[in-house]
Design a protein that fits this description.
The chain is mainly β. It has two domains: 108 residues, Jelly Rolls; 135 residues, Jelly Rolls (Sandwich). It is built from one helix and 22 strands. Strands 1, 13, 14, 17, 18, 19 and 21 form a seven-stranded antiparallel β-sheet that branches. The protein starts with 5 loop residues before the first strand and ends in a 17-residue tail after the last helix.
Amino acid sequence: MARPHIEFMHSRWLPRLTAWPGADSRPGVGCQVLSRDPDDGACSLLLHYPPGWCVDEQALSVDEEIFVLDGALELDGRRLGPHFYAFIPGGFVRRRLAAPDGARVIVFFSGEPVAAEPGCFDPARVVPGVDTRRMTAMRGPRRHMASEGFRHEGTVHKLLFDDPLTGDKTWLAGLAPYWSIDSIETHPVCEEQFALSGDVHLPCGVMREGCYFWRPAGIPHGPFGTTGGALHLCRGKGGPFATAFAPSPEPFGWDPPYRPVLPEEYARLVPDSYDGCRADWLQP
């Protein structure tokens, strides 16, 4: 995967585009590009659906994952409200996708989204829509993610999708206030997170609601912790997720300065006045 390391930036800094790769499949929908693979067009986007938007009888050539932030989508008669999740494989026909009152949605495409003829797909890969708020949270070691060395007390986990084709996973991770871990982690696959609420203190700064990272495989990271608790939408891309742990040469510290790892086109979007340690910076 050729996506650059982005760790981390706030989504509000990204320009809202009307012309973007794949826009023909979502005419009239605004887009903020969180990250994109220049080789295959796989991308993570914030899509802004205007009130009254709809498309009928559409299939795409690629997989689409949906997580609704605000508003609601209607997918084949099913209402997907805030924090609903869906997975739609390539070739699946959406009889109707609509946003009667508008919606702000995180969307992950496995390639550049292009309208296509209906195709074959594995029904086991279809998630028509689930209210993640009503899902039972898991506690304790996540054996399906080979994370037995992780400090699980004070954390919750909701597995949204375990892809039977690729082994990739999508999940929600929740951290209790004042939870922290002192070790360094490394994963054999790419890791991606979008902060839904709270704060996470990383060596490169404090992630808050609306912040995003894409971390390529094999990059050590940590230690980290939270003051007020946190909820993040997470993905592992590139096969089954696992974690290797190592002692950190430096102890965990609160309120680190903002020192991101960003490609130039993202670095120039960061405001000079940004102070990631101040929670009130992100308030209207």
